[in-house]
Amino acid sequence: MTKIEFIMDEHQFKRLFDRARADVDRLTDTACPRLYFDSIDLLTDKFFDLIRHLLASQDEAQFCVLSLKPDPFGHFSYFEKYPAFLHGAKNTVDDYYDVLHRDPGNSPADAIAYNAIQYVVLPIVGDWFMYADRDWQMGALSGPSDVMELARGFYPFFLTPEPGFRITGN
Length: 170
Description:
Blueprint: H1 10-26, E1 35-37, H2 45-57, E2 63-69, E3 84-87, H3 93-101, H4 112-115, E4 118-123, E5 129-133, E6 138-142, H5 145-154
Antiparallel strand pairs: 1-6, 2-3, 2-4, 4-5, 5-6
Helix pairs in contact: 2-5
């Protein structure tokens, strides 16, 4: 098992954070393709398998999980690290669960698994992404049509949201 560390470099985190925010903003456009999932799916083996399946389809292996809310620049600033990590080719599902449940500072309640109200999963190289908001109990995968078809065929737990459900900007 290769231990995954939280991102400590502000520049690296800011670059990923800005990319994540831009991706989330695209979801407010009703024409943006999406497949919906339960926001708690982040903590399941099958969701991890979906991430790895999408990465493998593009010959990629590395992805980032990053918490957008609570405010990572305010709430987490005293930890001297950010609520985000990179999962690489040599990391396992056990490494993934370990870092999701590990506290980034002095409080286990601040682990991404428990504290991330909004989170994003991004491939380091690729143009699909996942966004979830636990307050809505919903998440969305968005990307090119080939990625969406691949995901739809692989992951049996996509949902149909309530009529009128819309992802709104923050």
